[in-house]
Design goal:
This protein is mostly helical. It is built from 13 helices and no strands.
């Protein structure tokens, strides 16, 4: 833990302080085999399940291709496991080990502590999103995205949103073990309700309208729209509004209720 609590005296800028914390956190992340496995390998394996499920659906009738389902789904899995689930465990573990409490006594400000601890997971999420997008595009022959800016915006919003949601979930957990359990409802709800396994286009309209309000749903909508180029202006604004709303609520919850010390 000393690697994470010690900040060089020469580092005085916010960027430098967060970079130092991120380097220490990356070292600790490499020692956590379970978290590292879930972050690195689960998002890579799950797209194969998506491909099998997509082959059994009538996607042509919904105006979709296999690639338009698998590519956003693969990126969604990366956000759920490499970012959200990993950060939930990281924040809970550092809190229980009193690392967060000690960091607050130094130069680091609260946002810097949370952001610095999140940087390694966010970096993994970015790399995975790029690799999965390129790999799925090549293997499924889906071609380049028609509106790449929508896909980029969707991924960036997802990274910020799920980093904040990870902190919120950790604050509701009493231990590292309970944090892993607390992350499951959102993870599984997103997998089955946000268009990863079942696209909104093949859901009943009323069910789709409800599922589109889930946190991951606007990300999937924007990334899918980036590939198909068929997302209307109204649907784009609706997805952006939903993502921004979830992000704002999550950031507010972190500022209001995040716990820096273990519950006794």
């Amino acid at each position: 833990m000393s690697a994470l609590t010690a900040t060089p005296q020469a580092v005085t800028t916010p960027a430098g302080r967060m970079a130092a914390l991120a380097r220490a956190e990356l070292t600790l992340l490499g020692r956590s085999k379970g978290t590292l496995f879930a972050a690195l390998f689960v998002p890579v394996v799950m797209p194969f399940s998506l491909r099998q499920g997509a082959d059994s659906m009538d996607l042509k009738g919904a105006g979709l291709s296999v690639g338009a389902v698998v590519v956003p789904g693969a990126i969604g899995f990366s956000l759920l496991f490499a970012v959200y689930s990993a950060l939930t465990a990281v924040y809970a573990a550092r809190r229980e080990e009193l690392v967060l409490k000690r960091l607050r006594t130094g130069e680091l400000r609260d946002p810097e502590i949370l952001a610095g601890a999140a940087l390694p997971s966010v970096a993994i999420g970015v790399v995975q999103a790029v690799v999965l997008a390129i790999g799925c595009t090549v293997l499924l022959d889906t071609g380049a995205p028609s509106a790449p800016h929508l896909a980029v915006i969707g991924v960036l919003l997802g990274l910020v949103m799920f980093s904040a949601l990870g902190a919120v979930t950790a604050s509701l957990s009493r231990s590292v073990e309970s944090a892993q359990v607390m992350a499951m409802p959102l993870a599984f709800g997103s997998m089955f309700g946000s268009g990863l396994f079942i696209p909104f286009e093949v859901m009943p309209d009323k069910l789709a309208s409800v599922c589109e309000l889930l946190p991951l749903s606007p990300v999937i909508t924007l990334v899918r729209g980036g590939w198909t180029g068929e997302l209307s202006g109204a649907d784009t604004l609706a997805a952006l509004a939903t993502a921004v709303a979830w992000t704002a609520v999550s950031v507010f919850a972190v500022r209001r209720w995040f716990r820096w010390e273990p519950r006794r």
